[in-house]
Each structure stands twice: as C-alpha cells, then as structure tokens.
Design goal:
The complex is a heterodimer. Chain A is mainly alpha-helical. Chain A is about 60% helix and about 5% strand. Chain B is about 60% helix and about 5% strand. The chains are: A mainly alpha, B mainly alpha.
C-alpha cells in the first residue's frame, strides 16, 4: 500500500467533500466548464511555483510513497492531481458554507453573500432576484 | 529570508492585492471566505500532515529553504500560507468567471460596440 499513500489521501479528500455537492447542493461539479477554467487559470502559477521549488531543492518526493509516474521526470502524477483536488475541495467548502448559511439564516450575511456570488438557486433565494438566470 | 518563506510572503501579498484592489472580488471582506478558510485550514492539518510527517514523509522539505518552523504533523508553517494563497486564488477566479457569466446573461453587448464591416 505504501506507493498509494499520496494518491489515497487525495481520494479521501474527494470522498469527504463529495456530500457537499450531492447533499448540500454546492454545484461545483455541475459547472464543469467554469470548474475547468478556474483550475487552469488559478493553478498554473502554483504548479509553476511547485516546479521552481523542486528545481531549487526546496522539496522533493519520496519514491517509496508515490506511484513512480513522474511527469516530465520531475513531478509525481499525484502532485499534479493535488492542484486539481485541493481547489475542488475549497470551492465545495465555500459554496456549501454559503448555501448552508443562506438556509439557516435566509436574511443573514451569508445569504447576501451567496446571492452576490451566485451560490444559491434564484428560485429558492429569499432575496429578490432581478436577473433571470439562463 | 529562506526562499520558500519569501515566495510564500510574496504569494500572499499578490493574492490579497488582486482580491482587494485589482480584480476587486473582495472575498477577504466576506464572512463566507473566512469560514471556508477556517474549515480548509482545519482539514489541512491532517492532510498536509500526512504528506509532511517526518516519520513517513511523502513530501520532504529541505530545512535550509524554509523558516524551520513546523506545526502540528511537521508541516512547514509556510504550507499554510501556500494554502491560503491557493484557496483565495481559486475562489477569486471562480467568482470572476461567475460574474462574467451573469453579466453576459444580463446585458448582451450592444451592437454599436461591435464594428461591422461596411
């Protein structure tokens, strides 16, 4: 199991956050285009930072605990997946916080933020929606 | 200053300036962002710890390139700054893309702004 240590923790992150989408209704996976664009735009600088860190010897990766599939001979596959999984968890968490907040206190601060950030369905929102959503 | 420490400080300054001044998503002024960040930092302790714990380190840090301060399960303190920058950047881009979609649905671009061949 040791070579799967890194991959398994990423899978655990996806499993733990999955209910945020399918129980709480975060609508992150259900916006695949926006998600893909977000990952590409937001994570490119951090992947580059990671490559600089590797090149400058700030950190390296244990061959014992990774699969051994090194992209370009430098970055383990799991490390690239890290930059897909963690931002997804962050988006799910934020959307879930806004939705839950809006549900518990429909006129509270989180409800207002959810409205502004488009994190709630207009039909269920307590705040009047001026713009019909496509 | 060690390089990882320096890069972390620079990254934090850049995302904060982008959020508050340049892109003006102003997530740092929202309650939702800080609640989500607190939850994410909470989960970062075991997850990052799984990667960094010195008795079975998956990612191995060179002590010369960070502050040397390790928190919880041997995670370099810089990792929490890296996480902060990564999370804010992600939510910022997601927000901007959503805003663009919403405003595109709201106001179709006026025909006059498109020069037409004549």
């Amino acid at each position: 199991m040791e070579p799967f240590h890194y991959l398994l923790v990423l899978l655990a992150c996806l499993l733990v956050t999955a209910p945020l989408e399918w129980v709480i209704g975060a609508r992150v996976y259900r916006r695949p285009r926006r998600l893909a664009l977000t990952l590409i735009i937001a994570m490119t600088p951090f992947v580059l930072w990671d490559l600089v860190g590797i090149a400058r010897g700030h950190w390296d990766f244990s061959a014992r605990y990774t699969l051994g599939l090194d992209l370009g001979g430098v970055m383990p596959l799991e490390e690239l997946l890290f930059f897909v999984v963690i931002p997804i968890c962050a988006l799910l968490t934020h959307q879930a916080v806004l939705r839950l907040g809006a549900r518990v206190m429909p006129r509270g601060r989180l409800a207002r933020e959810a409205e502004e950030l488009g994190a709630v369905d207009p039909a269920t929102s307590a705040v009047r929606q001026d713009v019909p959503r496509a | 200053m060690p390089e990882y420490t320096l890069l972390t400080v620079v990254a934090i300054v850049v995302v904060v300036v982008l959020d508050l001044v340049v892109v003006r998503t102003r997530l740092l002024t929202t309650l939702g962002f800080w609640l989500a960040l607190a939850i994410m930092w909470g989960f970062q302790i075991p997850v990052d710890g799984w990667l960094t714990r010195l008795d079975a380190a998956i990612v191995r840090y060179d002590d010369r390139h960070f502050s040397g301060v390790r928190l919880f399960l041997d995670s370099p303190i810089e990792d929490f700054g890296f996480g902060f920058a990564m999370i804010l950047a992600t939510l910022m881009v997601w927000t901007v893309l959503g805003r663009r979609q919403r405003s595109a649905a709201q106001d179709p671009p006026p025909a006059a702004s498109h020069p037409t061949a004549s």
